Amino acid sequence: MKLKVKLAGCFDMEFRLPKSILDRYEKKMKDAGIHLRLHTAIGSSISISDLKRDGVDAVLIASGLWRASKLNVPGEALPNVCYGIHYLSSPESFEIKNRLAIIGTGNTAIDVARTALHRGVGYVTLYARREQSNADPKEIELAKLEGAEFKTQMQISRITKEGPMFKRVQLDENGQIASIYEEEVFEPADFTIIAASQGPKSKLINTTPGLKGTEKGLLQVDEEGATSVDGIFGAGDVVYGGRTVVEAVANAKKVVLAIDAYLEKKESF
Length: 269
What we know:
The chain has about 270 residues and is an alpha/beta fold. It has two domains: about 40-65 and about 200-269, 3-Layer(bba) Sandwich (FAD/NAD(P)-binding domain), CATH 3.50.50; about 65-200, 3-Layer(bba) Sandwich (FAD/NAD(P)-binding domain). It is about 30% helix and about 25% strand. The protein is built from eight helices and 14 strands. It has a five-stranded parallel beta sheet with strand order 5-12-6-7-8. Strand 7, helix 5 (about 135-145) and strand 8 form a beta-alpha-beta unit. The longest helix has 24 residues, at about 245-269. It is elongated.
């Protein structure tokens, strides 16, 4: 069956995906009959109810994790501090100077580190409490080759204008935190970026009657990706949390097949 699809969003993926490739994908999507509506946050001026009112039979929510999680430490509101997801959206807007401290070693933190290094920041250090990271090992190695330094067993305690303060962590034989020392350790930095974790924005759930979320704020779906509202589906990180691109794409393909079956059934009535 021929589907009419409308995509909404606003993304800057130059570091991960050059704009020349995005331009080619955009042309292919348009040639396939897909309509694009950019710079549109569903849940703000336009709601999912508006989409359904105007003829959309099925909605796929694949909005990812675009809400930065706070550390709740003193100094988080200083002018030389920001969140990783905001930096990656517009890296040219931030003046980092020569020395950058990054709180976190996950995929977002690695992207921040490599982007900053590509933009000429001289010293980039990533800090984490544990040794293990959920980032792609190849990306970690690339970051190290490009000049990023990793410091583990460091618990952020506060942030100053001159750089973050940490408390050293002692790990047990399983790599879990056994104790945290009281003495603070100062790490000089011109700028600090918090990239510890992210969550989904709540506007879609808050503006869509009947749409349910989990305790973590993720979208609640069944095995086919269907939400608690008829005709609305969810896929990717907004459902499962931060995972790999491969997992998100595989999940999205499964949910799209479920949407196709839903539309076929709807047309038969």
